[in-house]
Write a structure and sequence with these properties.
The complex is a heterodimer of chains A (about 450) and B (about 300). With about 450 residues, chain A is of the alpha/beta class. Chain A has helices at about 5, 15-25, 65-75, 90-100, 115-120, 130-140, 140-145, 170-175, 185-195, 215-225, 245-255, 270-280, 295-300, 335-350, 355-365, 375, 380-385, 390-400, 405, 415-430, 435-455, and strands spanning about 55-60, 80-85, 105-110, 125, 150, 150-155, 155-170, 205, 285-290, 310-315, 320-330, 400-405. Chain A starts with a helix and ends with a helix. Chain B folds into two domains: about 1-35, no CATH class; about 65-300, Orthogonal Bundle (MetI-like fold). Chain B is flat, with a radius of gyration of 25 Å. Classes of the chains: A alpha/beta (about 450), B mainly alpha (about 300).
Amino acid sequence: MTQDVIGKWELSRRRVLGGAAAAAGLGSFGSGPAALAQTAGPWSQAPRSKVDRLNFVVWTYGDIYSRIAKQFETDWGVKVDTTISSFNDHPTKLTTMFAAGEKIDVSQSSPFSFPNFIEQGLVEPIDDLPGAAEYIKDFSNFTKQVATYKGKTMGLPYFAAVWVWNYYGEMLEKLKIDKPFATYEEFIEHCLKAKKDGVSRYPVLWVAGVGLEQLPGTWYQMTWNRGGVFFDKQGNHMLGDGSIARETLKFWANTFEKGLDISDPESLKVQFTTSAKAFGAGKNLYRGPNHHYGLNVANDPAQSPIAGKVKVHGSPGDGKTIGVTHVYFLSSATRDKEWGWKLLQYLGGRTKDGNYTQAVGLAKDAMLGSGYNSVMNSDAVKQGWAPWGDVPAILKMWDQAAYIGEVCSSVYQPWHFPWTDQVNIEVQKTLTGQITADQCCDNLIKGIADAKRKI
Amino acid sequence: MSVARHDGRWFRREISAGGFAFFMNLPTMLCLALVLAYPVIYAGYLSVHRVGLAQLRRGEFPFNGFDNFERLFEDRLFWVALKNTFIFTFITVGAEVILAVLIALLINQSSIWTSRVTRFLILLPYAIPPIANGLIWSFIYSFQFGFLNRILFSAGVITEPINWAGNPETALYAVTVPYIWRTLPFAILLVHAALQGIPRELYEQAAVDGATAWQRFWRITLPLLRPIIAVILILRTSFAFAVFEEILAITQGGPGDATWVAAWYSYKVTFSPPNNFGMGSASAYVLALLIGAMALIYVRFVYRRVTL
């Protein structure tokens, strides 16, 4: 975006006062929802420029986007067009629109695509925009790691999630097992017992469908939980002989058909929500590890025959797990930076009334975590999540979660995306017994150089 | 045919048949040039340039010679995708031709009553959008809840569910079935139309000469169907080479690389970050050349001009 547009943001006295009031307000964030609302601030002021319409390009999630678009139209009298595709198709939709020269005001990204989008010039930094500093102060640690790129803030948080296990409580009781596994050995024992007793043919459902954080995320999580990483701080891979990532993959592959045969074959197809729906059929004992909000589906009576019987469970050992934040960003192809920023705040920040409307709504309606500390500490989470799961237990896991980038630091690199394509292929081949875990890791080591060449 | 000039010096002259044909075809040629030739030529241009999102947005494409093709041929996944494409095409086109001839012969029999409903049902799959077809079959193939396993289990054919689309040994074959199911009606239509164009007298004369049903089929029907079979082979091969929707809906290339096909490869290279449009265009060009080569082979070895 050009400097002339940025130049329109002259700091008026009113804006300075508004910003100061907002900053002061942040200091008073407590646990009540009222503390989240800051009516006076840059978010409540109309941009000086005029636009007929705005748009955002996002992936589907219920009706949240039609609702927020409607609210924006009501508040500011500007029509908002929406382009919505599935999660896996979103990068394609966004990049083709960008390449075709279409106007895109606001979009969103997983942390895995984000460096690539930034490197390709899709994303506009937001540091200098009115009110941005207040948002940044409220960013959670995950959000800071995703939204900050080469020292600049490139987005606002969409949602945050941590990886947890689920188990089917009634099935565990039927097996006369008093509590879920505390070690991976126990996990195997429980699954073998469930299979032997005829309680479950495939006791574990993994989230191992092709994706950026479905199959790879499962491997990342278990590797991290066992004390391993994929790359060290210098960026060297940690996939060699005897590495924890490699041993974890061996353990994982052994649960499939050509090993212990306790893994549900559907694991290789299911994504976040579909895995929760499949688990709701009540045929598996364990599901995971995956995003915590799957409970919102598995314990929803409208979607799950075993609603209310799906419990959340932490990871073995010290309970280390991983977390992630997805972001909204201001597109460099925006038609008007002032209005684009305004729309971005509706999706990833405050609405005109000063509330984190979207973040609070997502917590209450969809059990999503927030990338803002103030929302995570609020009743929106404590009360909003309660119908679906054990909130204190999940929040404890939240505290033990490290950002996914600590496990796999390549997420900060533009070559992570093509390398993940290979991860999906090689790991699925390993899980289906076409190659060994050793071959898989060797191929992935070679693939790092190939992925870098593709950039 | 005459053409008049509008400059006041009116005169009449005959234009040649060739000129008239050219004149009448001009609008079609222009449309084809715009709709087909331009994108094809542009893709060729992109294939020898470095083209990512930033370059597309700026409209500046650095020339990089045959780098895209070199990288393409070095990519193991490209060869896997090509191999899978050949297997997929061989199975689907072969099955379509055989089934189309058999079904068309059946519904062409005046002695066999085929109601309009039956004919409608035969044509129905062709009206289903490919992506919807893929989704329908992904439900049918579902491991624990799919209709196919349920039917086979109920019939006592299997005792354990089969992971049709999730097993690398069956996934590619599993995807061929929905594709054949969707595209077969087109081939049936063509063969059926060709069958109706064969004069009945030929069969009557053959019957008088004592030819058996098999001899009539082998000596009369099949030779006269060769042109239409060549057309089906060319069309269906080119479409099968470019199969995409069923792959997207059922397997997304998985498990592993078991169902990566050429069009899926081009799509992933082009539209997934880092969005290498140049390399994607190169792979699409290789695919187009292969289809062209296959068409030439069909014309050379299958097509025969028929004179009655």
